[in-house]
Amino acid sequence: MRQTSSLFALVSAAVVSALPAPHNEARQVDCCAILADVFPDKVNYPGSSRFSQETDAFWSSTCSLAPNCFFTPDVTAEVATAVGLLSSNECRFSVRAGGHHSSVGAASNIGGVTIALTNFKQRDVDPVNNIVSVGPGNRFHEVYAATDAYHKVAVLGRYAQVGTGLLLGAGLSYLNNPEGLSIDNIVAHEVVLANGTVVIASADSHPDLHKALKGGGNNFGVVTRYDLKIFDVPEYVLGAMPYYDNLTYHYHVDAAVNDKFTHILPQWGFNGATGQRESFTPFLYLKQQPTLPPSLQPWVDVPWVHNTIRQTSVLTPLAFENHDGYFNGDAQQQRTITIFADREFFHEVSDRFHQFAQSWAHIEGFYALHCKMPITPFMVQKSIENGGNVLGLEGIEEPLSILYFGVTARNIEDSEALFAAHEEFVENLRGIAQERGLLHRYIMWNYSAFNQAVIDSYGPDNVQFLKDVAEAYDPNGVFQNLVGGQKIPF
């Protein structure tokens, strides 16, 4: 959806809250011109076809703002030069990889520069050392296709068009149960720092920065390459998209814990156009098996309308299958809370969200999506074994559930009231969960709204660690003050 003037009025409050204040208004610095002097062919202004392409690349229209220009580099050295120039001239800028988030200001801005990493398409598979080097311009279906050729897989997101921003937040994947979160399977980050220098952050080089990037988001630099672990995939695995009511609690406390080859994404949606609730649940069994294992059998024993269960040797088609029906350009909002898995509350949450969704069915293009996704103690232990992250999940003794709530409207004009009601609904649920002793403080970055206090939820020790790392690598606070998104609470 192309940017329109109505967007500014409707999301202005969110933009003011989410975007950093400009530092260079009094100096009247033309930040785009500074870049164009060095890279005349890579700075794209309104009215150009490339500017329109980059504007349309955002998943949610609420994130498709109005920068003065897009900068489209091809290599890390160009990013380094640009960041150095923007930092030294106190220019507001943003960095967009896949652009698949609903958080206003996370990957664009009004009146600044947006660095679009669209051209960073590196997908180098090293099957001997089991590493895939991935550029941030990739969507996950492209990475799946690269590793499918070697019967390997990385711990990636499950939807085809999701991008690498997921690798800065947490990362739920087909391989979570045996291997942990996506961030815990990153071997190294190539990072452009605020002063324009480039470092490799890993367990052996800048380990503090490496750990901070595992959940700390865009607060330290621009990641221009991720080196990810890859794992063997059996010649054939079971993959599917069955449609039915959920057996979510059983998956959280039994299958995800006791049969780690099993991955299930329990979710349902409400379609305002039809007034119907539809359950569609991707699953994957990462072990060669001719028939359904006991962990999956209950999911097909209940009535279903359609399923695509089959043996497959590649995961790319499944990623597209998961993404079917999702498009760029609608107004989206995601929100999330984390609870301890509880059967009765799972049912109550679904009933409440269904009632909420029905009340908004009159909105054109309305859709509501709800998911419940486990984090098990074993997944947290895998994080510790891989050097740890900053999410603050250590010490859990029973499965958590990441509750996802998403709403969609066709027209940006309908989003203001819908998004306010959605926020009120989720915050009310948070209060109920807290009253019942079910709430966990953690807020997952990947599914958060712009005004959810993600980094605060990591706990005071991790917040202090992130502050220390930011002061060490970005002493002038460039990524705190000039770049939007979830910021460290200084």
UniProtKB/TrEMBL annotation:
Gene Ontology molecular-function annotations: FAD binding; oxidoreductase activity
Signal sequence residues: 1-18
Superkingdom as given in the UniProt entry: Eukaryota
Positions of the FAD-binding PCMH-type domain: 63-233
InterPro entries: FAD-bd_PCMH (IPR016166), FAD-bd_PCMH-like_sf (IPR036318), FAD-bd_PCMH_sub2 (IPR016169), FAD-linked_Oxidoreductase (IPR050416), Oxid_FAD_bind_N (IPR006094)
Record-linked PROSITE patterns: FAD_PCMH (PS51387)
Pfam families given in the database record: FAD_binding_4
Family: Belongs to the oxygen-dependent FAD-linked oxidoreductase family.
Protein name per Swiss-Prot or TrEMBL: FAD-binding protein
Source organism (scientific name): Volvariella volvacea
